[in-house]
Amino acid sequence: MSEDPSGAGDGAPARPARRPNVKDVAALAGVSWKTVSNVVNGTAPVRDSTRERVQRAIDELGYRPNAAGRNLRQGRSRLLALAIPEIRLAYFADLAHAVILAAKAHGYTVLIDETFAEPGHEQVVAEGFRVDLLDGVIFSPQALADSDLVAAGGRLPMVMLGEATLPVDGGTAAADHVVIDNVASAREATEHLIASGRRRIGFLGVRATETNGTGVLRHAGYKAALEAHGLPVEAFPAPAYSRPGGAEVVGALLDRFTGPDALDGLVCANDFLAIGAMHVLRAAGLRVPDDVAVLGWDGTEDGIYSNPTLTTVAPDLSALAELAVDLVLARVGGSTATPQVHTVGHRLIVRESTV
Amino acid sequence: MSEDPSGAGDGAPARPARRPNVKDVAALAGVSWKTVSNVVNGTAPVRDSTRERVQRAIDELGYRPNAAGRNLRQGRSRLLALAIPEIRLAYFADLAHAVILAAKAHGYTVLIDETFAEPGHEQVVAEGFRVDLLDGVIFSPQALADSDLVAAGGRLPMVMLGEATLPVDGGTAAADHVVIDNVASAREATEHLIASGRRRIGFLGVRATETNGTGVLRHAGYKAALEAHGLPVEAFPAPAYSRPGGAEVVGALLDRFTGPDALDGLVCANDFLAIGAMHVLRAAGLRVPDDVAVLGWDGTEDGIYSNPTLTTVAPDLSALAELAVDLVLARVGGSTATPQVHTVGHRLIVRESTV
DNA sequence: CACACAACTTCTAACGTTGAATACAGTGAT
DNA sequence: ATCACTGTATTCAACGTTAGAAGTTGTGTG
């Protein structure tokens, strides 16, 4: 009916055909558009009276500097990506939350890229995923081995989470890494089980394909603790660090929970494995923690509301996220410091599953 | 030591000082930059041999069209935002996952905005959050009432999830809405409890502040089912649709689960409330489902691995996400169709908690 | 040989922004 | 009255891309 092509309502001010730009503001304020820019960015001194006049024009038109123009001019987008296997996994949702907050504190916006742990997609990320759009990437790789990253020429500032992409020989890292002390935390967690009287403790979550990943390191700490007490070591691989993964492995392992050498403790490489494991154990008529003690990693909220509640190693996620954002933004700012491995804190939260 | 300011390694090709642009590609391929543009965008016909030559140059230089330049020229960023209360809540993580996939199918990238259900921040989103950067927004509001949205002039294509921002009087919606049939699904779920012999069924999750929100509609369906059977209605408010929220409410309500009129069923407005409720019920020595049947909404994976496993109403999330993306992109493309309310499917998944 | 047509080039312009350089006015000193 | 200086404000140019128009080849057709 109306001739207004914008389709906006009647009562409200009609949607302008074109978003206002600096020139519109300048025209309304009666100054040059550069002065408007100066007011917006504080680039050059502007007289108070002029500033007020410009500000009034900005408010009246609802002017917001166009991001594309600004990005083009400045060569920066103030956009970071967080590349993770899958946002549905609680740990990564927690991580994303922490990273979004940390980035916002620096005026940065975060966009989530799900890799689904596919080597192909992870390789794409490593090689400079959306280098046309992003200022930097925070990358939590899963399938990528240490050697892969070195091959990719660092086209885009990148920070790695976890040790997976570190050279096994201890050589120079290709990018900054942020990690928790997996060996120490695994030792702590295992010591906790031993202290509560467990003697036959299994480890769930070794991975054949990993050379330097989370699972390997946690397994190493677990092994060190048991060997220090002269106790037997028994490790099982997991296809995926997920609830179904944990359920599957433990399901195929149920006969190891009966007989004279029955397992009475299970160190799981993360909370999901532990919850999947507990689910199957319960279905098989085994009691947690009475028959088997179970613990995991990540400190996800699931462990607070699981039945029984779950003992877990919780990384200091906000510290991790802030550090990762600081490091990647330092590179964006031009830093060429030698990449390093940074360790953030963790703590063991003891709950019902290991009482 | 090296004079190379890029800081790149030695073996790998040094990071170029400047990212290649169309002119660099054109020079290498021996064609005009316009031809490169034509190859990249398919704007005009190009001979196969030429196309190949250009493609080789693109690959060799690792050329990727600069997003800022392209956005500026085309007036579109191919960026959508998904505004949700909090990514850590499993339902929203599932939703984000579905939206990311749906958007990717259209060449769009998604950026997550967490509103924390703060009215202030939700208002900002409604008024055209990052209109300078985004092509559109998919918005799952929590605190926003129906009237608020109308006031905001639609500066940015927006699709709303859920009924919260619909006018109560059934008037014209200010934007497209995508919903599930909350009344019908609540009736189904409640009928399921009645069919399994429950007679004293409570509802968890009404909200005083809502006029047209999810909780109100699910309560209406619940009420309709009970009244159809002449059974008593008993509803309780929840401070937040979270596990702690569910735990808190049920914790203060434990005496309603003993005595002659003891509740033997609990319809919870979402899975989180249900899991929090089950947690407290168990701690108080009550058995689910023996003493109390419990169910929720959202179909989150938590309900598969909870103890007991949880009966839930699962929305068809991929349909919901695809529809939302289609609708918002239609607006981006210039559609001025009258906003409508679109309903997607759901199904009741029966598990242990209501056997 | 004129003509149509395809493939490509050249040229112009514009998207909105901001750094660098420059112009301008007003003040105070010489 | 001239000059230097300071505080403001302005003009210029460029970021990388693409749309459009007009011109230039080369090839094949009538």
From TrEMBL, chains A, B:
UniProt key word DNA-binding: yes
Pfam families: LacI, Peripla_BP_3
InterPro entries recorded: HTH_LacI, LacI/GalR-like_sensor, Lambda_DNA-bd_dom_sf, Peripla_BP_I
Gene3D superfamilies to which the protein is assigned, alphabetical: 3.40.50.2300, lambda repressor-like DNA-binding domains (1.10.260.40)
Location of the region described as Disordered in the Swiss-Prot/TrEMBL record: 1-21
Keyword field: DNA-binding, Transcription, Transcription regulation
Domain HTH lacI-type positions: 20-74
Domain of life of the organism encoding this protein: Bacteria
SMART domains attached to this UniProt entry: HTH_LACI
Molecular function terms, GO-annotated: DNA binding
Protein name: LacI family DNA-binding transcriptional regulator
Organism: Occultella gossypii
Lineage: Bacteria, Bacillati, Actinomycetota, Actinomycetes, Micrococcales
